[in-house]
Design brief:
The complex is a heterodimer of chains A (110) and B (120).
Chain A (H helix, E strand, L loop, with lengths): L3 E2 L3 E4 L4 E8 L11 E5 L6 E5 L3 E2 L7 E6 L2 E7 L7 E10 L2 E4 L3 E5 L1
Chain B lengths: L2 E5 L3 E2 L5 E8 L7 E7 L6 E7 L4 E3 L7 E6 L4 E6 L8 E11 L2 E7 L3 E5 L2
Parallel strand pairs in B: 2-11
Antiparallel strand pairs in B: 1-3, 3-8, 4-5, 4-9, 5-6, 7-8, 9-10, 9-11
């Protein structure tokens, strides 16, 4: 099974910009993998942030943006706020309905 | 707004079968795919598999031999069965709606999750 890679942890200053990435052990990530991103705070269910690489889910602020950077999918937070401190997971679609989660990135805002 | 709610035993004995049900409200279960995702304590998320309302299914290859997901359209519910469980199956289990269209397939609506502990 392919391995989806994410940075285990990142930090950003309030008001700063941070980019989280989502790679694939066996290939370059493209839009064909339908990258999606999910935010999870402790004790809560995940929340869908972004899908189809760069489409924000309803209610997601525009400081979140998605893209392909090089050979990875990327989630960029511009103007980070304290309540952005969460775990972030990417998912790549492998075909036939199969999805693989990345290991998650723990984002600290400090 | 679609809402999903998991239900089922919170404690299962090793070697037995874990059974959970997800009740969908605020929308029909028809015309959609429905997934289960789990999260062991302190760890990341893992996609378990999906069932379409038509009955077609697909599962995580690492769990394929033990998983069954099915949809009960009249009750607007779908279910998960995981057989021969061990302590490694202890996790919060989430039921999730899939959103599929041309050029996209992602998870959109999530249940709150239910903790299932495997222990004797």
């Amino acid at each position: 099974q392919p391995v989806v890679t994410q940075e285990p942890s990142l930090s950003v200053s309030p008001g700063g910009t941070v980019t989280l990435t989502c790679g694939l052990s066996s290939d370059s990530v493209s839009t064909n993998y339908y990258p999606s991103w999910y935010q999870q705070t402790p004790g809560q269910a995940p929340r869908t942030l972004m899908y189809s690489t760069k489409i924000r889910s309803s209610g997601v602020p525009d400081r979140f943006s998605g893209s392909i950077l090089g050979n990875k999918a990327a989630l960029t937070i511009t103007g980070a706020q304290a309540d952005d401190e969460s775990d972030y997971y990417c998912v790549l679609y492998m075909g036939s309905g199969i999805k693989v989660f990345g290991g998650g990135t723990k984002l600290t805002v400090l | 707004q679609v809402q999903l709610q998991e239900s089922g035993p919170g404690l299962v004995k090793p070697s037995e079968t874990l059974s959970l049900t997800c009740t969908v409200s605020g929308g029909s279960i028809s015309n959609f795919f429905w997934s289960w995702v789990r999260q062991p304590p302190g760890k990341g998320l893992e996609w378990i598999g999906y069932s379409h309302y038509s009955g077609s299914t697909n599962y995580n290859p690492s769990l394929d031999s033990r998983v069954t997901i099915s949809v009960d359209t009249p009750r607007n519910q779908f279910s998960l069965k995981l057989s021969s469980v061990t302590a490694a199956d202890t996790a919060v289990y989430y039921c999730v709606r899939d959103h599929k269209e041309v050029g996209d397939w992602h998870l959109d609506f999530w249940g709150r999750g239910t903790l299932v502990t495997v222990s004797s």
